[in-house]
Amino acid sequence: MMHCKHPWIWLALAALAGLTAAAAAEDSTARAAAAGEAVFARVDGSAISVAQYEAELKLAYRGKFYHGKPPEAQLAQLRREVGDTLIERVLLLAEAKRRGIEPDAEKTRTELVAFEARYRDNPRWQQRRDQLLPMVTQRLEEQNVLARLEAAVRAAPKPGEKQLRAYFAAHPDTFTEPERLRLSVILLKVDPAASQADRDKAREEARAIWQRLAGGADFAALARERSGDASALNGGDMGYLHRGMLPEALHAQLDKMVPGALSEPITLLEGVAIFRFDERLPAQPRGFEESRERAAGLWRREREERQWREFKAGLRRAATIRVLDRSRYPSTEADRK
Fold first, then answer.
1. 136 in helix, strand or coil?
2. Tell me: the pLDDT tens digits for 287-313?
């Protein structure tokens, strides 16, 4: 199946093919009423049809649960999310219109040329291009308008010195270099599909190597000779690794080890490994000045996210929203309170 960069195009193609008669009717109460369509929700006088909702749900379902049927709780959450997205779109487009935000005509033309080039070999697009083109153009213009509205709402000033220092002080873990461990490894590779006999043989070999190491054999030399890991060229030296870069079960062993100690042979997905714990560098807080640029970026990103989230919530509070088909919009705990 062709991957679709513009999934909404299938709503239009399906509508014109007679598969869903209202997939393209996105914003008019009068149009929905004239067609006798069932209405999912009304948002400040604009209607969202059930057909439109179901088409959007189908796309969302296909994108999120393509390989199987989800648990009922996840499907209920998806139904709610699709409804919220459609309601939010109506509100945002209305706000953009109120602000007088116009689409960038040149950008729309460029996107339309790219769009036509992408779908020119699609049979349904070829047959119905003249009918679909107005809807595609409108949708590209709407996407452009929504992007411009979001950019305007998100725009946040640079933090002042006091704000920046307060943010830095409030997030010490964010500006701390985590503990790092320096390890060396000898890995006897085993194909994940290998037989049990092959795995047992690798474990026996690893045990023999471990005994040689415990008896004083040179780790680097054995790593160069026997290890299948990329670090073999460096005598097994893996460099400094943060917690989380290795299996948690290994970390449980490393926490009990002192520099120079060897792990018992450990079975991994890649095979059987012996680790040598070389060095532990404790977590190291970074200073404010060296963290200034990162702190400013994180502060600004959080501020922009909060502004955008609060803006959308404000639009919903000020709007008259009536969901007429509650079966497609499951209630949440907040609704029931």
1. helix
2. 999 999 999 999 999 999 999 999 999
Q: What are phi and psi of 24, to 5 degrees?
A: -90, -5
CATH C-level class of 9-156+311-336: mainly alpha
What does the block give as tokens for 284?
């190291």
Q: What is the DSSP string of 185-222?
A: EEEEE--TT--HHHHHHHHHHHHHHHHHHHTT--HHHH
CATH domain 179-282 topology: Chitinase A; domain 3 (3.10.50)
What CA–CA distances, in Å, run from 272 to 105, 151, 206, 231? 61, 52, 7, 15
The structure's pTM equals 0.69
In this structure, what are the phi and psi dihedrals at residue 85, rounded to the nearest 5 degrees?
-65, -45
Task: Please give the Cα distance from 4 to 323 (Å, whole number).
Answer: 30
Measured between alpha carbons, how far is 142 from 240 in angstroms, rounded to an integer?
Answer: 49
CA distances to 52, 53, 111 from 40, rounded to whole Å, are 9, 7, 31
Q: In this prediction, what percent of the chain has a pLDDT beyond 90?
A: 57
Highest-pLDDT range among 4-8, 233-237, 262-266: 233-237
